[in-house]
Amino acid sequence: MKVEALDKFWADKSRYDLAEKRFYEGPQKVTDRSHYSPLVSEIAKAREHIQNSLEKIDGVTLDDGLNSELAKRLAQLEGEHKELKTQVSLLNELLTATVKRLETQLKLTNGVSKEPEVEAKKPEANDDDDDVDLFGSDSEEEDGEAARIREERLAAYAAKKAKKVQIIAKSNIILDVKPWDDETDLKVMETEIRKITQDGLLWGASKFVPVAFGIQKLSISCVVEDDKVSIDWLTEEIEKLEDFVQSVDIAAFNKI
Description:
This protein starts with a helix and ends with a strand. A four-stranded antiparallel sheet has the order 2-3-1-4, covered by helices on one side. It is elongated, with a radius of gyration of 63 Å. The chain is α+β, with helices and mostly antiparallel strands and 256 residues long. Among the domains are: 1-61, no CATH class; 170-255, Ribosomal protein S6/Translation elongation factor EF1B (Alpha-Beta Plaits). 55% of the residues lie in helices and 17% in strands.
């Protein structure tokens, strides 16, 4: 540009036009820069504000309300932590006491506290004194006393056992006795049945129960001692009364 300005004559028209264009465009660019200067200022301010905000965050700059809320939360967490530690300590103590108690019970169960058996020492025989019995009379008296005590204890045990009441097993039975027909005299049949006697057999109440077509059956109860009276024997004895009895059934059987 400077070199071309010194020339008094430009032979190239295009170069002249380009120089003129550059001449006029120079002030316009300066004007555009001055026009956009407020925008550049705003951008600079925004950058400065962002930079200040970042510096505050890095320095953990918080307001008073947020600081008090955090302090309360920290105090609450510390209290809960102390309470948990106390509860854990109590649980450990309780567990230790329970384990000790169980160990003591196991020792007692396994017979740790059993009394040691004391074995009586047998007196050693002296070969030199075999022919001489210096305490013969005393040993005989002791043997007699021990035998007497043993006999007394055996007698007392036998007497105690004899006085003990023995439980006798008994059964309550209800028998249904069916006659041949309606002409059978049930009263006579009952009388014949009651004539059956045995040690341990006791006859009870009886009644006539209708069956069908005017026929009745005899329902009679009895109590028997299980060791003395057999149910099979009793039913066989009743069935022997063939003139009256057709069949015998056990209606009920209960232990007493």
